[in-house]
């Protein structure tokens, strides 16, 4: 979420290492890359869909009622 909001900001900030951009700080300190944002968004969508599919299959397969 930090990268999506601040990953492309080119303003200079003061850090303990000197002056650098917000983008550079996120890349150096946290190793967050703005280029990786699409993959992160895809995973954030895929996980709930995957869990919903597993839940739906489990409900269908594990029917313990006998008639």
What does it look like?
The chain is mainly alpha-helical and 67 residues long. It has one domain. Helix content is 58%, strand content 12%. Strands 1-2 form a two-stranded antiparallel ribbon. Strand 1 and strand 2 form a beta hairpin. It is rod-shaped, with a radius of gyration of 21 Å. The model has no long low-confidence stretch (mean pLDDT 84).
User: Helix share of residues?
Assistant: 55-70%
SSE run: HEEHH
Task: Give the total of beta strands.
Answer: 2
Number of helices: 3
Distance between the termini: 50 Å
What characteristics describe this protein?
two-stranded antiparallel ribbon, 67 residues, mainly alpha
What is the strand and helix layout of this fold?
Layout: H1 2-6, E1 12-15, E2 18-21, H2 22-30, H3 37-61
Antiparallel strand pairs: 1-2
């Amino acid at each position: 979420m930090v990268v999506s909001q601040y990953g492309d900001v080119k303003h200079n900030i003061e850090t303990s290492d000197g002056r650098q951009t917000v983008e550079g700080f996120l890349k150096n300190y946290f190793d967050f890359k703005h280029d990786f944002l699409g993959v992160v968004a895809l995973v954030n969508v895929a996980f709930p869909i995957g869990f919903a599919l597993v839940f739906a299959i489990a409900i269908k397969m594990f029917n313990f009622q006998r008639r």
